[in-house]
Design goal:
This protein is an alpha+beta fold. Among the domains are: 53 residues, Uridine Diphospho-n-acetylenolpyruvylglucosamine Reductase, domain 2 (2-Layer Sandwich); 102 residues, Enolase-like, domain 1, CATH 3.30.390.50. 27% of the residues lie in helices and 19% in strands. It contains twelve helices and eleven strands. The strands form three sheets. The protein has a five-stranded antiparallel sheet with strand order 4-5-8-6-7, covered by helices on one side. It binds flavin-adenine dinucleotide (FAD) and iron/sulfur cluster. Flavin-adenine dinucleotide (FAD) binds next to strand 2, helix 2, helix 6, helix 7 and strand 8.
Length: 339
């Protein structure tokens, strides 16, 4: 373990000040990812700024436009079992409960989940090169163990995936991330929050070093009946997704009125293609329409030596998730219909 100093600020402004004056400072919330990375010598902060007791970030509140704001320090458990989240955003509750284990979800926070880092084996192994950990050192995953890696949006520099379940629902629901920095507050649509690796894979998001996540705002509730989160993984619990799909439909009689779906486990960010969703609008729900949407969302997918299976797996997962959503199959552990 490397030496570091520790601060427990009493306000958001103080927290921002603590990191803005030190490029090697890091925030810590639940600590379920950062502490592991510090033990593996991947993250080496010289100053750790503990957010866990900051006032005002642990609440779930109604917004003026009929949505919900989930504070950055709300735990994944508290968000998943909040009555308003369960009723109005059951897709989000489902994805939260699909992640990690109950103990981890009790500690993990909304802000930390948004920023959890990839599970690429080489990233965690500081004895190997890795462009994300040490820019310019290389990417052994491209020709090495790449079963869990990305099939979309990759770059020469990095083929890692974003491992979060929650982020996939946030993408489908068009959440907005509220952040604060030295120059005030700003709102970042979730589609612009996570980034593709390009030639700077060390940057997972567009958040500045000196910016703090205050919370996430969900727009007015929709998709409360026809939704599914399908998570495919090597074990039935306590495992990251190989491929996942968050699907949400609004039915207009016998046809699809509105469609949203995003994929996890396939790219450096939740993968959503609005053109694929547009193909579904006005269509009759069924295998033909869902297969066309799946082909569109996966356009350009490229497999590596050990992960090419993900392309077909993702195609079938999209078709199945959309079929389940269309049928209104209960998916959430918090869904009243299956309690
Ligand atoms: C064994 C194991 C299994 C797991 N399985 C899954 C799974 O199946 N699905 C899944 O989605 N996740 C899974 N996770 C990951 C887990 O969800 C994340 O570790 C957790 O969400 C991170 O939240 P945290 O509050 O503990 O973040 P921390 O570890 O405290 O922080 C993570 C990062 O976020 C930054 N940060 C935290 N809060 C803020 C803020 N408000 N503003 C700015 N920066 C901030 C920190 O500086 C750090 O860089 C698993 C983790 C473990 C250890
Ligand atoms: S895929 Fe990305 S995280 Fe993994 S070794 Fe390559 S550069 Fe590092």
């Amino acid at each position: 373990m490397n030496r570091f100093s520790y601060a427990r600020p009493g306000s958001v402004a103080e927290a921002v000040r603590e990191v803005s004056t030190n490029p090697a400072a890091k925030f810590i919330a639940g600590g379920t990812n950062l502490v592991d990375l510090m033990k593996y010598n991947v993250e080496r902060p010289t100053h750790v700024v503990d957010l866990s007791r900051l006032p005002g970030l642990k609440e779930i509140e109604e917004t003026a436009d009929g949505g919900l704001r989930i504070g950055a320090l709300v735990s994944n458990t508290a968000a998943a079992y909040d009555e308003r989240v369960k009723e109005r955003y059951p897709l989000l509750a489902t994805t939260l409960l699909a992640g990690a284990s109950p103990q981890l979800r009790n500690a993990a926070t909304t802000g930390g989940n948004l920023l959890q880092r990839t599970r690429c084996y080489y990233f965690y192994d500081s004895a190997t090169p890795c462009n994300k950990r040490e820019p310019g050192s290389g990417c052994p995953a491209k020709t090495g163990l790449n079963r869990i890696h990305a099939i979309l949006g990759t770059s020469e520099a990095c083929v890692a995936t974003n491992p979060s379940d929650m982020n996939v629902a946030m993408a489908a629901l068009e959440a907005v991330v509220k952040v604060a920095g030295p120059n005030g507050e700003r709102s970042v649509p979730i589609a612009e929050f996570h980034r593709l690796p390009g030639d700077a894979p060390e940057r997972d998001t567009t958040l500045g070093h000196d910016e703090i996540i205050l919370g996430v705002e969900l727009p007015e509730p929709r998709f409360t009946t026809h939704y599914t989160y399908l998570k495919l993984r090597d074990r039935l619990s306590y495992a990251f997704a190989l491929v996942s799909v968050a699907a949400a439909l609004e039915m207009d009689g016998d046809t699809i009125g509105e469609a949203r779906f995003a994929l996890g486990g396939v790219a450096h960010k939740p993968w959503r293609v609005p053109e694929a969703e547009a193909l579904l609008r006005g269509s009759a729900p069924g295998r033909e329409a869902f297969a066309a949407a799946a082909d569109r969302v996966l356009q350009g997918a490229v497999g590596l030596e050990h992960n090419a299976f993900k392309i077909d797996l993702a195609r079938r997962a999209v078709i199945r998730a959309l079929s389940q959503a269309a049928a209104g199959t209960p998916q959430s552990q918090t869904d009243k219909r299956i309690q």
